[in-house]
Amino acid sequence: MAAIIPAHRARVTKLVRSHGSFVVDQVTIDRLYGGLRGMTVLVSEISKVDPQYGIRLRGYTIQEVLDLLPKAPGTEYPLAGGLYYLLLMGEMPTLEDALMVENEWKARSHVPDYVFNVLKSLPADTHPMTMFSQAILSMQHESVFARRYNEDLQKVDYWEAALEDSLNLTAKLPTIAAFIYNLRYRDGQFISPDPNLDWSANFGHMIGKGKDSDYLELCRLFFVLHSDHEGANVSAHTAHLVGSTLSDIYYSCSAGINGLAGPLHGLANQKCLRWLLSVRESFESFPTRDQLEKFASDTLNAGKVIPGYGHAVLRTVDPRFTAQLKFADKYLPQDELFKLVKLVYEVVPDVLQKTGKVKNPWPNVDAINGTLQYHYGVKEFEFYTVLFGVGRIMGITANNVWARALGLPIERPVSLTTGNLEELTAGISSQI
Ligand SMILES: CC(=O)SCCNC(=O)CCNC(=O)[C@H](O)C(C)(C)COP(=O)(O)OP(=O)(O)OC[C@H]1O[C@@H](n2cnc3c(N)ncnc32)[C@H](O)[C@@H]1OP(=O)(O)O
Ligand SMILES: O=C([O-])CC(=O)C(=O)O
């Protein structure tokens, strides 16, 4: 990174000097009250969501990422270490590059005991996302960035300390996630990481599924797919905002995970599986199209959303959904819940379209996540968003390192009151 950062800084400086007053977007009253949705307000070097094609990680589509990233010998899905290299460096890694990151993670993977003690001290029915966020936050005093900032850290070197923190934190995520799973659902059994397994597969191994090679492949797919979704989704943006105050990676990631825990964001995968099971439980046998259509309409009429459908940016089927659909077509084509996912995919977009208000009636990644986990015996819905979070922290931390490398300032826009807006628009003829 030290070799590529200076040239990138020069690009940004030139862009800002030459075109600093170029208007990228306009703030309207609609958008102020509409959650700023659709407004371009942030920069991220790592990825971009195209409404029609979906996410591109460093310019690569999901299919290209899956095809081109290096794999461990004898496996089908990529090494997460390769993905992290791609996110940080912006270029497709070799197998050696990917293994370099994997080895770096192995060397840094030890989780201090006090983290486990913090988790054990929480009420037994604490939501796994709360546990995950607390575990990350509890490690804040390990921050290299925070310590060096209080010593002699210069702005030009912020990124190096942020990278140290990022590698330290990401290295520990599979162990922390597995510990939470085992504490909540497997009587606290502890399985040490297997030094011969890669980062993603080690999670599967540590929750007792090390012999299920198909599940280990799913882990590899899952974490890569969930890593990043441009800089403005709630989890990434929250982490960026917090990081912009020079709060370190631990504070930033814990905050981002709190945003991911909402049902309109990452928690939708938990909600989606609950919804699918309630469909299944409502009928004696597999539902017909008509029955499903009615069930979906009833959900909408009850004032609820259909989880796993719709998106703030995407206007097409989420390619992360498609990638998992392909996985399931290969590994679990006969699974009844998966067949239901497919039927929902055929039926629900029309139902949503008929409302006349849903901008994107297509499935997002959450429409299938839980079904795959459920198939392999990870049946505890509340845990699913932790898995999402493990992946997402790769993107959040890569963004943070680059934000520090580019010296991005504190994010602090300006807010107005409704009264201020009424004053601003007084005397202008109404659009109604
Ligand atoms: C990884 C992720 O975070 S992907 C998203 C995961 N979340 C979900 O799957 C939850 C279900 N989906 C939703 O709630 C929404 O589609 C969101 C939050 C993802 C996007 O929200 P928005 O940008 O507001 O979507 P949109 O502009 O299409 O919303 C217009 C209307 O359609 C409704 N709508 C959108 N999607 C759905 C849905 N799946 N089911 C029912 N209604 C929906 C909205 O609630 C809104 O209704 P309102 O005007 O009465 O408030
Ligand atoms: O982009 C978004 O707003 C939500 C999403 O799909 C993600 O963060 O993965």
TrEMBL record:
Enzyme Commission number(s): 2.3.3.16
UniProt GO MF annotations: citrate synthase activity
PROSITE patterns with a match to the protein in the record: CITRATE_SYNTHASE
Entries under Gene3D superfamilies matching the protein: Citrate Synthase, domain 1, Cytochrome P450-Terp, domain 2
The keyword Aminoacyl-tRNA synthetase appears for this protein: no
Enzyme class: transferase
The keyword Lipid metabolism is annotated on this UniProt entry: no
InterPro entries, per the entry: Citrate_synth-like_lrg_a-sub, Citrate_synth-like_sm_a-sub, Citrate_synthase, Citrate_synthase_AS, Citrate_synthase_sf
Pathway the protein contributes to: Carbohydrate metabolism; tricarboxylic acid cycle
Keywords for the protein's UniProt record, in alphabetical order: Acyltransferase, Transferase
UniProt GO BP: carbohydrate metabolic process; tricarboxylic acid cycle
Record Pfam families: Citrate_synt (PF00285)
Family assignment from sequence similarity: Belongs to the citrate synthase family.
PANTHER family: CITRATE SYNTHASE (PTHR11739), CITRATE SYNTHASE, MITOCHONDRIAL (PTHR11739:SF8)
Record protein name field: citrate synthase (unknown stereospecificity)
Protein's organism: Ornatilinea apprima
